[in-house]
Amino acid sequence: MAIASVTGMQCVSAQDAFMIGKDVAVFYPEGYDARQHEPSPIFVVDFERTEDVAGGWRIRPEFSINGGKSVARIAVGKEVDFYGNGEVAGQLRRNGKEVKFWNTDAPKYEVDGGKRLYQSHPWVLVVRRDGTAFGVIADNTWKSSVRMDEEEITFESEGPAFRVVIIEKGSPAEVLKELADLTGHIEMPPLWALGYQQCRWSYFPDTRVKEIADSLRLHRIPSDVIWMDIDYMDNFKVFTFDKERFPDPKDLNDYLHERGFKTVWMIDPGVKVEEGYRIDDEGTKMDYWVKDANGKPYEGEVWPGQCHFPDFTRPEVREWWGSLYKDYMATGIDGVWNDMNEPAIFNVETSTMPEDNRHEGGGGLAAGPHLRYHNSYGLNMVKASREGILEANPEKRPFVLTRSNFLGGHRYAATWTGDNASDPSLMKMSVPMTINLGLSGQPFNGPDIGGFFDDCTPELLAQWTAMGVYFPFVRNHSAAGTRQQEPWAFGEETLDVCRTAINRRYRLLPYIYTLFREAYEDGVPVMRPAFFADVKDAALRKEQEAFLLGGDLMVVPRWAENPAMPAGDWRRIVLEDGTDDGYQAMLYQRPGSIIPIANLSQNTTEYSTDSLTLLVNLDGDGKACGRLYEDEGEGFGFRDGEYADFALSASCAGDEVIVSVTQTNGNMHKGRKRIRVGLVMPDGIVYSQWTGGRTVRVGR
Ligand code: MIG
């Protein structure tokens, strides 16, 4: 059943199109060659024709070949707002923007005018005035671009004609749920990965790392993770340890574990060309490297000097790479940081490998040029990493952080937004960047807090931390050679600001962990744009200073100049006593919501919800509700019912507010010692006494 028809000079509508589910249609161009695109790294489902696309279906691509490029144009109608696009610099609303899909090491987001960064997500979320929404996926890894013009989206690719998937729904949240159903839901992260994390390129030797850990505890900065950058490696050789600086990684990991820290260590894709270096010898012997156009193992320069690059398109290479993590993780490493996997190459103008390099594929994937496989290089690497780490530690939830990735890669790794700088404009930009990644199926992400390049200032670290603790991923990181950037590096006042902010993060963990559960279930982002509070409110569509953490908390950074707030009686909450330092982001709670809060802990191994505070902001009818999801925070028992899901509810009876906590799901017995209620009033929070049991009655 071909429905091809010539509609313009060169334009053809889909040669074939069909529904692959409710409200999801796929459109195939004429001459579509599945071997050039499938199996797609984006999808976890096979496309099965459920029915034909109905005549009334609104959004349809027109395909064409134009100047040698494969083009898909999608007319979108008037008055729409564009979002998503994955990792992008600049404003939240993508109208009028162009993004290039060619993963690039992009310091300060300056390459190509900021049009291409470390990751590619050929994805646009489109929201109409009335709040209905649709999403567009170009199922294409080849070098390409997208433009969002006034009434039209244009994908243009240097590769062969590609198919387009359209999701049509009643709201952006529903579109994102469908996106998760099609591309995979995130895995539950380990709880510790939601804590505060301290990183810096140049934490060496191991005694310095211990010093950092001790300082965090000494200054009572709640924290969970210390990161090891490339400094620990022997001559930057992956899966090795410098004999002088890091002679005993197990001892270091033990030391940190004893103090309640987890550790994340870096692994890059480039393998130093060196005879006698086990990894290089193995890869060479097995012939696992990416090849140049002549079929010889390609060599490119990175940190260690000349390197080979594993061909991650090959299943056996992924398996091998994954297996390398076994001994490595056995030193007590908790998580892995995959950097430079665009892949980034030094001293070449393109900063990556040649487009005509060869990848072998396998497992149904055809051999093809780097032009095709560049954008999925990072995705395939983290897929290998995740699987290997899981095999090494089958009882633990893998934690992988990646710099490069591709649409769908959220299944394997969390991400950070690469090398920003200690600059207020980049701090501000980190809000829309994190939001748009969330609107592209990657909820677990965040920027280098404090900024990577250049010297941070006390003012900037205070501002950035005071807001950054409400991001999904919270890590302070900076480049070697810049000024020290730990919370204590700028004196008492900055330290106090950071501590207060981080304390609030830890107190909010019951709520934040529940949000990750929601992301896992429904594909809804953890950090959301303000317009999610009221998708019909046109005034919220451009808001990119203030943002939502989940559905119930608006975060307004102190530097926000003119934040648009959702209508309704959102009430200010201040999470703890103490003077207002003028830096802490302002938090507003949604009317009708209940937010669960823990007592302060210094890390997630100490964290407990035995004492639970429920912040209640009643709606106009005197009601409120919320949710608390809990499990072990580690391992996979939750898949077999080892969790506890609670409905939180509040209602008024006479002069009293009755607040109750009811387990609705899960077999985990979560003994709770005591609860209390904080009634959010216009002029502050009024706390009840602590009580045992599951119900609290408080006077209004
Ligand atoms: O060429 O490992 O984005 O976070 O500290 C720089 C050193 C390599 C880039 C990463 C950055 C990391 C740095 N890496």
Task: Summarize the structure in words.
By secondary structure, the chain is an alpha+beta fold. Among the domains are: about 10-185, glycosyl hydrolase (family 31) (Immunoglobulin-like, Sandwich), CATH 2.60.40; about 555-700, Sandwich (Immunoglobulin-like), CATH 2.60.40. The protein contains 12 helices and 42 strands. It has a 9-stranded parallel sheet with strand order 27-26-24-21-17-16-15-29-28. The chain has a 7-stranded antiparallel sheet with strand order 4-2-3-14-11-10-7. The model is unreliable at about 1-10 (pLDDT under 50). Bound molecules: ligand MIG. Ligand MIG binds near residues 230, 403, 419 and 477.
Secondary structure elements and their pairing?
Blueprint: E1 12-13, E2 16-21, E3 24-28, E4 51-52, E5 61-66, E6 69-75, E7 80-84, E8 98-101, E9 119-120, E10 123-128, E11 133-139, E12 144-149, E13 152-157, E14 163-169, H1 172-183, E15 197-198, H2 206-218, E16 225-228, H3 249-258, E17 262-267, E18 271-272, H4 278-286, E19 300-302, E20 305-308, H5 315-323, H6 325-329, E21 335-338, E22 358-359, E23 368-369, H7 370-373, H8 377-392, E24 400-402, E25 405-406, E26 414-416, H9 424-438, E27 445-446, E28 448-449, H10 458-468, E29 475-476, H11 492-507, H12 509-522, E30 527-529, E31 547-549, E32 553-556, E33 571-573, E34 586-589, E35 593-598, E36 611-617, E37 624-631, E38 643-653, E39 656-665, E40 674-681, E41 684-687, E42 695-699
Parallel strand pairs: 9-25, 15-16, 15-29, 16-17, 17-21, 21-24, 24-26, 26-27, 28-29, 36-40
Antiparallel strand pairs: 1-5, 2-3, 2-4, 3-14, 5-6, 6-13, 7-10, 8-12, 10-11, 11-14, 12-13, 18-20, 19-20, 22-23, 30-31, 31-32, 32-34, 33-34, 35-36, 37-38, 38-39, 39-42, 40-41
Helix pairs in contact: 2-3, 5-8, 10-11
The protein binds ligand MIG.
Residues 201, 229-230, 339-340, 403, 418-419, 477 line the site of ligand MIG.
